[in-house]
Design brief:
single chain, 101 residues, mainly alpha, Non-ribosomal Peptide Synthetase Peptidyl Carrier Protein, Chain A, 2 strands, 71% helix
């Protein structure tokens, strides 16, 4: 049992599972933060440009087919902002870790 426990601890250290779990939790929290930023700050500015005024329920009717482009645009904006935040943080971290030339 001690050998198995030692191997498990080594596995956790070698593959940095704890750091991965922390990153996962932080990613989930930042996703909620970015969604709030998009829904509460950016989208009210965009809402007057949409025909129905309610950006999340904006649809395009093509005969019997309704395309819900409002929710897609909101998710796309969420993704772009989250990707930008991750890029800026990663760039800052990688810049401080890089040796000076």
């Amino acid at each position: 049992m001690k050998v198995w426990l030692g191997e498990f601890v080594q596995f956790l250290k070698e593959y940095k599972v704890i750091a991965l779990a922390v990153a996962f939790v932080m990613g989930a929290a930042s996703t909620d933060l970015v969604k709030s930023l998009v829904n509460d700050v950016f989208m009210p500015l965009v809402a007057p440009l949409l025909p129905e005024g309610a950006w999340q329920t904006a649809t395009l009717a093509l005969g019997p087919v309704n395309i819900a482009y409002g929710s897609f645009l909101a998710e796309l904006l969420n993704f772009v902002i989250l990707a930008l935040v991750v890029f800026l943080v990663a760039r800052k971290i990688l810049k401080t870790d890089a040796p000076a030339k």
